[in-house]
Design brief:
Strand order of the largest sheet: 1-2-3-4-5-6-7-8
Order of helices and strands: HHEEEEEEEEHEEEEEEEEEE
Largest sheet: 8 strands, antiparallel, barrel
Shape: flat
Number of helices: 3
Length: 427
């Protein structure tokens, strides 16, 4: 456990000590060093697809609007998300009544380690799969719901999270395991501003010895959407949006000895990533914007699983229920590729492309993708957050072939994004 805690602590310190924009690259989650968890996910991912609405098919607010800010997510009360008969089990498992619901980009990693110190024989295996797009749900439960609200406040409580993949490989760890002890509000990494539900940290670590077997485990989730000082990325002043990173791992070691050899055998697995989640905009407000033929502009950024940021700008035409947007102005900036254990090539950095699509309820869905410097396929989807649609959070999961280079390259790119309203103009 000491190794894992030190790696986590070192990673977090590095995150805030490095320079802006690409600061998190030095953190990199220490993918080759962290320990991970054995897969026990049971969510049937085959029921979902980025080519259809899938789990978000029924992600619509009641006509009366979002829950009152006095009613805390995670406590008894009306369900702020109305599902339909078409909603899959994935949605029910991930986004429960009262949750803050959203999207994630995540990765899986496993390792096996065997070492015979007596004879100097060793074998080691490490596998990495990701990044992948996912659905994400947060249950935020303060001990004192009247002291910690959407509008502010600080105090203790509990947080739990759930994750499901949208396509491809399922998360090896699909939830936080248990409720995690949490601190809401102005916590020790927070640089200032207003506290509340969307500003928190929650974590739990354990170390269990059972004979010759030692098991380490850890789970964590952090939210800091207003932390402009450290420029973590995806900042917002919308109090009904939470953004941050999450993860969980389990690592087990078996120790024994015979006449010639002392063995130290270990294995572990982890799932980790970034998320954006929140309270969906009331349908009544969206209907009013459509009736007024309002056109709104949004600006923000996206972030991939390695912490690289890309600028994002969007225009929403509520009148005809359409939207359009550009990532890095439609062209690649500084990018690089890496190859996962399964042979898949992934693109990281300032990946540029354009997208447009339709609005359905509180959700957006892409119908067309393009790029100024290549060919793009895949999907973008997201959700309006806040009482007045102050933000849009979502996930992009694309494959891009950059034809502007001497040797065209094709690679996948997945990232979460968060844009905030800049201008709202009736037409």
């Amino acid at each position: 456990m000491k190794k894992n805690c030190s790696i986590v602590a070192t990673s977090i310190v590095a995150l805030f000590a490095t320079s802006p924009v690409f600061a998190i690259d030095s953190w990199q989650f220490h993918e080759n060093d962290w320990s991970k968890v054995r897969s026990y996910a049971t969510v049937p991912i085959s029921q979902d697809s980025l080519d259809s609405w899938g789990a978000w098919g029924g992600f619509v607010e009641p006509a009366a609007g979002a829950p009152s800010v006095a009613q805390m997510p995670g406590v008894a009360g009306s369900d702020p998300y109305r599902t339909t008969p078409n909603a899959t089990r994935v949605a029910a498992d991930v986004c429960r009544g009262g949750d803050w619901c959203g999207y994630a980009v995540f990765a899986n990693q496993q390792w096996d380690y065997n070492q015979s110190r007596g004879k100097g024989e060793s074998s080691e295996g490490n596998t990495y799969s990701g990044p992948m797009a996912g659905l994400f749900g947060l249950t935020l439960t303060p001990d004192n719901p009247t002291a910690v609200t959407v509008n502010g406040g600080s105090g203790s409580g509990m947080v739990s999270w759930r994750l499901a993949g949208l396509t491809g490989t399922a998360p090896l760890l699909n939830n936080s395991g248990t409720d995690l002890p949490a601190t809401f509000g102005n916590w020790y990494w927070y640089s200032g501003g207003q506290g509340g539900l969307n500003n928190f940290y929650a974590e739990r670590y354990s170390n269990t010895d059972n004979g010759n077997t030692t098991t380490y485990g850890g789970s964590y989730v952090y939210g800091f959407p207003q932390d402009y000082y450290y420029y973590w990325g995806l900042p917002t002043s919308n109090k009904e949006v939470a953004v941050g990173w999450f993860g969980r791992y389990i690592e087990s070691y078996v120790n024994g000895q015979d006449e010639e050899r002392e063995w130290n055998n270990g294995n572990g697995t982890q799932t980790y990533g970034y998320y954006v989640a929140g309270i969906a905009t009331p349908q009544a407000y969206l209907d009013s914007q459509r009736a007024g033929n309002v056109v709104a502009t949004y600006s923000g950024s996206s972030m991939d699983v390695r912490g690289y940021q890309t600028s994002v700008n969007m225009t929403v035409n509520f009148g005809n229920a359409t939207w359009s947007g550009s990532w890095n102005n439609g062209s690649d900036g500084h990018v690089y590729t890496n190859t996962a254990s399964n042979g898949a090539t992934h693109l990281h950095g300032q990946v540029g492309f354009n997208a447009s699509g339709t609005i359905s309820g509180a959700n957006i869905n892409s119908t067309a993708l393009s790029a100024n410097d290549g060919i793009v396929t895949g999907k973008v989807q997201g959700t309006f957050y806040g009482q007045t649609a102050g933000s849009i959070g979502g996930v992009s999961d694309i494959v891009k072939t950059n034809t502007a280079t001497m040797t065209p390259t094709t690679a996948a790119h997945t990232a979460v994004f968060l844009v905030n309203k800049v201008e709202n103009t009736p037409r």
